[in-house]
Amino acid sequence: MRNINKIVIHCSDSNWGSAEAIDQWHKERGWDGIGYHYVITNGFKTFTSKYTQEDDGVIQDGRPVEKQGAHVKGYNKDSVGVCLIGKEHFSSAQLYTSLPNLLAILMVKYNVKVDQVMGHYELDIGKTCPNLNMEGVRLQMGDIDL
Q1: Could you give the percent of the chain with pLDDT greater than 70?
Q2: Which helix (H) or strand (E) holds 40?
Q3: Does the pTM exceed 0.85?
Q4: Considering 6, 10, 26, 45, which one is annotated as catalytic?
Q5: What is the pLDDT of residue 50?
Q6: Cβ atoms within 10 A of the Cβ of 35, count?
Q7: Catalytic residue status for 36
Q8: Gap between the Cα atoms of 1 and 136, Å rounded
Q9: Is 120 assigned a catalytic role?
Q10: pLDDT in tens, 110-140
Q11: How many whole angstroms separate alpha carbon 109 and alpha carbon 87?
Q12: Residue 11 is among the residues annotated as catalytic for this protein
């Protein structure tokens, strides 16, 4: 098993999507498949689909955690990548239910301290992804007992 030291949060930079869609997008770029380990949906599966509540905040598996990710150059070896579907606006289900629940599980499972829950932009200067206030995310997760 890989030694996991970080959890890196990303956004898809799209208003719709799923782990399956990202897998296709990454393959089209010549990668061997989805680079993220988890995807949290926003209720819009496809470009033309209407919002459905049952598809909002669903945590989908991406690349197996045992396999090194392809989500942040220089940090893939020891991190887990989590991608929120969205650009700059995310649903309540994503931000206040699914993301904190997934982070809590991953933090406990891999003994990752809250200060090692990072936004992509914190590791790759010039990026804005995940377009979230990561200090706020870390404050929300600060009570996790490892």
Answers
A1: 97
A2: strand 38-42
A3: yes
A4: 10
A5: 93
A6: 22
A7: yes
A8: 31
A9: yes
A10: 999 999 999 999 999 889 999 999 999 999 8
A11: 28
A12: no
Among candidate residues 10, 6, 64, the one with its CA nearest the CA of residue 33: 64
Active-site position among 36, 38, 110, 121: 36
Q: Which CATH architecture has domain 6-141?
A: 3-Layer(aba) Sandwich (3.40)
The domain spans of the chain are 6-141
Catalytic residue among 11, 71, 120, 121: 120
More confident residue, 144 or 137: 137
Burial (CB < 10 A; 0-12, 13-18, 19+), residue 119, is buried
Q: At 143, which amino acid appears? A: D
Q: Which of 11, 26, 38, 129 is catalytic?
A: 129
Q: Give the pLDDT of residue 144.
A: 66
Is 129 catalytic? The answer is yes
Per-residue pLDDT at 1: 74
Task: Decide if pLDDT at 145 tops 70.
Answer: no
- Give CA–CA dist 146/7, Å, rounded: 15
Q: Has 96 been annotated as catalytic?
A: no
